[in-house]
Amino acid sequence: MATITDLSGRVAVVTGGTRGVGAGITRALLEAGAEVVTCARRPADRPVGAAGRTPRFRPVDLRDAEAVGAFFMDVRGEYGRLDVLVNNAGGTPYRMLDEGGAERHARVIELNLLASLTASLAAYEQMRTQPGGGSIVMIGSVSGSRPSPGTAAYGAAKAGLEQLARSMAVEWAPLVRVNTLVLGMVRTELSHLHYGDEDGVAAVGRTVPLGRLAEPDEVGDACVFLASDRAAYISGASLLVHGGGERPAFLDAATTGN
Predict the structure, then answer these.
(1) Among 255, 240, 254, 253, CA closest to 209
(2) Has the keyword Oxidoreductase been applied to this entry (predicted)?
(3) Is there a contact between 108 and 150 (Cβ–Cβ < 8 Å)?
């Protein structure tokens, strides 16, 4: 993993930073020198660390606004400041729209959209009072800009998250910058649940122009850039991290002329 910039002295919070993409973001921030606090409902199954350093972990339910507010106040009290928030927590089971009823789909939207709003509001209260403000990074998805059968509520939430970030960037400027990383497919410890065995992962990777799935640490590098002073004039932006996107299906379906 290449070190993009120096975040020494910065304090960052990564929601859901204990595994998968979140662990990659945590490692990248640690590599860049930041002090990192991760939060989730449960601690990591295995330690997350980089450069001989580890993050602090605090259990918190991001759907509980009171608990989230207390968590961010504790971070500010312990470290004296809060510079970066990465809203990474989220996810969804595969469920068609006519399965399970509206309540289950609403819980997906609550986790993937409303929890990020709750965390961002609490972080903003800390960032707005300090010199230099801060940076908020939303972890979005290409599912928010294309049909997502089986994960429709997740796609709708990610579309909303990107729009929310753009509005925050206007309302909270110039002190707080807000941007979105729009992710394609990422190889994590749960990839087999979506793509099958190694042959399946490789086959899916070949559908991406760059020929493979992203690694979590590559998402982390992009996150470090948006959080850093090198992105000081970038706010309200959506950075695509999808390896070139998806090859249009019609190109494979079409036949050459007679």
Answers:
(1) 240
(2) yes
(3) no
Cβ neighbours around 192 below 10 Å, total = 12
Tokens of residue 212, six digits? 């493979």
Could you give the CA distance from residue 126 to residue 133 in angstroms, rounded to a whole number?
Answer: 9
Contact between residue 214 and residue 239 where contact means Cβ atoms under 8 Å apart: no
Catalytic annotation, residues: 154
pTM of the model: 0.92
- Please state, in angstroms and rounded to a whole number, the distance separating the CA atoms of residues 209 and 211: 5
CB atoms within 10 A of CB 212: 14
Alpha helices in the chain (DSSP H): 20-31, 65-79, 101-109, 115-127, 152-171, 191-195, 198-205, 216-227, 249-253
pLDDT in tens, 29-44: 999 999 999 999 888 8
The answer to whether the CB of 94 falls within 8 A of the CB of 23 is no
3-state SS class at 71? helix
The 10 Å Cβ neighbour count of residue 223 is 30
Which sign, positive or negative, has the C-alpha torsion 33, 2, 213, 215? negative
Structure-token pair, residue 136: 């908020």
| Close Cβ partners of 129 (under 8 Å, ≥ 6 residues apart) | none
Residue type, 203: A
Dihedral of CA 179/182/186/191: which sign? positive
The chain-wide mean pLDDT, for the chain, equals 91
Q: Which one-letter amino acid corresponds to residue 98?
A: D
